[in-house]
């Protein structure tokens, strides 16, 4: 009988072997709860400690921007190479196959369109709906120095409180107003404020001067936005520089889905982020996979 078998000696309790007490691989995450860590480990690959987030949430304030007119045709084929999909719940429910196993980072703020003051956002999703959608994290825009700075920071702190209740981390997205200076000093301020007030990781822009000071004094991981479309080699150089200077990954949209060869580009970005590949080798990979002729670099 199985019950009796299992109580028979000899059994090995490994009394002399201490149970492993592993740390957590991600900066600033060691003291979080299990569910929150598990979600972060679905976003950041525990092997490299990094992530390639594919961002296509732009429609939440821009409408059908170039490359996102038909997400079913332009983005769904790229899913196999992304670690994480950053999107709105509308696109998730209407377009993304539920069989996808990629980590979902759900856009959780919104309100104004490009026709209005962008910093005037509110929270735009209930945390229960995010849990229903099996979100791995919630993303909120933070406008440090913007017209509605305090409101956007309050959006973030409320989201941290709500998400933490269910073990869902918050990604704070530092949003820079049109007339504001994008330099290391600004991003040190913005990213540090987000982290101090509870964000579990922060998205910011890459700057050539002093980016390592932004990553070093932010106590949680930083991922960079791709920003406006660049020539592919330049975008790969930006990603590589950011990684070398302390970023834990990219949250890239236009530089992938507006590329001449988006599937080749996301694979080249992966080579840089997870494989420490040089931008030049990654660009060779891009050309090989995309079978496109170099036009720059
Ligand atoms: C919108 C966002 C986008 O996800 C972000 O801008 C990333 O996309 P891109 O690489 O195209 O800049 O947060 O506010």
Termini separation: 72 Å
C-alpha geometry: globular
Which series of helices and strands comes N to C? HHEHHEHEEEHEHEHEHEHEHHH
Oligomer: single chain
Largest sheet: 8 strands, parallel, barrel
Query: Mean pLDDT, as a whole number?
Result: 95
Q: Count the beta strands.
A: 10
Estimated structural class:
alpha/beta
Q: Which range best describes the helical content: under 10%, 10-25%, 25-40%, 40-55%, 55-70% or over 70%? A: 25-40%
Ions and ligands: ribulose-5-phosphate
Strand order of the largest sheet: 1-2-3-6-7-8-9-10
Which regions are unreliable across 5 or more consecutive residues at pLDDT < 50? none
Q: Rg from C-alpha positions?
A: 21 Å
Q: Please count the helical segments.
A: 13
Proportion of residues in β-strands:
5-15%
């Amino acid at each position: 009988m199985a019950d009796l078998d299992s109580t028979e000696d000899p059994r090995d309790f490994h009394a002399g072997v201490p149970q492993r007490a592993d740390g957590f691989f991600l900066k600033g995450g060691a003291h979080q709860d299990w569910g929150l860590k598990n979600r972060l480990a679905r976003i950041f690959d525990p092997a490299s400690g990094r992530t390639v987030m594919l961002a296509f949430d732009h429609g939440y304030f821009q409408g059908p921007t170039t490359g996102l007119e038909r997400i079913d045709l332009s983005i769904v084929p790229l899913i196999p190479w992304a670690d994480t999909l950053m999107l709105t719940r509308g696109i998730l429910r209407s377009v993304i196959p539920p069989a996808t196993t990629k980590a979902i980072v759900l856009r959780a703020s919104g309100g104004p369109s490009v026709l209005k003051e962008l910093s005037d956002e509110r929270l735009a999703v209930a945390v229960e709906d995010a849990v229903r959608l099996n979100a791995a994290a919630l993303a909120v825009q933070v406008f440090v120095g913007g017209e509605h700075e305090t409101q956007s920071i309050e959006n973030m702190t409320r989201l941290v409180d709500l998400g933490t209740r269910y073990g869902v981390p918050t990604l704070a997205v530092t949003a820079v107003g049109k007339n504001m200076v994008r330099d290391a000093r600004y991003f040190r301020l913005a990213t540090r404020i987000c982290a101090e007030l509870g964000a579990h990781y922060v998205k910011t822009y890459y700057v050539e001067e002093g980016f390592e000071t932004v990553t070093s004094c932010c106590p949680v991981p930083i991922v960079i936005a791709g920003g406006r479309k660049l020539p592919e080699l330049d975008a790969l150089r930006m990603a590589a520089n950011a990684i070398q200077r302390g970023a834990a990954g990219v949250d890239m949209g236009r530089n992938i889905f507006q590329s001449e060869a988006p599937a080749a580009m996301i694979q080249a970005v992966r080579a840089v982020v997870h494989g420490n590949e040089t931008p030049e080798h990654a660009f060779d990979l891009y050309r090989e996979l995309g079978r496109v002729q170099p036009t720059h670099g």
